[in-house]
Amino acid sequence: MHFLGKAATFNLLYAFPLILIGEAGSAPAVVAKTFGWAFAWWGIGLYWWAGYLYVKQTVGLRRRYRHLLRAAPHRSA
User: Fold this and answer.
1) Position 77 in a domain
2) By residue range, what is the domain housing residue 17?
3) N or C terminus of the chain: which is more exposed, having fewer CB within 10 Å?
């Protein structure tokens, strides 16, 4: 189990308000927008990484499940 998906959500929850604040046009808004986009790109990257790990985990579980089915004795009805 990993927490990359949750970390990605955390980043995006900070990104969107900061990007919106960044539209104000003042000097602090420029800083907020910069941090907002940094959080957004980190969140996107973490989501892709988490997706890769979920697919890898699913493939591993399917292989294990197939192996268990082959090893189990067959029942006749």
Assistant:
1) no
2) 4-71
3) C
